[in-house]
Specification:
Helices cover 6% and strands 40% of the residues. The chain is mainly β and 84 residues long. The longest helix is centred in the first third of the chain and has 5 residues, at 21-25.
């Protein structure tokens, strides 16, 4: 797995450091298709917004839910796996 880096911007300086789960979350953007690893019965989820660690997802079988990205690492679905 490639290393993920975040740019941390403070008042007057910027520094680079390795990121953990929050770095992986940067790949989840509105429009992404995801699955909740602990709730496969929810089906595919369509990301509506990402604000900090809060991810709003509209799941096929569970409806719109707010996911705490610092607790749950959603699986991003590849384009060829997503149903139309």
């Amino acid at each position: 797995m490639p290393e993920v880096y975040c740019i941390i911007v403070a008042a007057r300086s910027a520094r680079r450091r390795k990121c953990s789960i929050m770095g992986a979350m940067s790949f989840i953007v509105p429009g992404s298709v995801v699955r909740h690893p602990g709730k496969p019965e929810w089906g595919l989820g369509y990301v509506q917004s990402v604000i900090g660690h809060r991810i709003t997802v509209n799941f096929e079988e569970a409806g719109k839910l707010l996911i705490d990205g610092s607790v749950v690492e959603l699986d991003v679905v590849k384009d060829d796996e997503a149903r139309p």
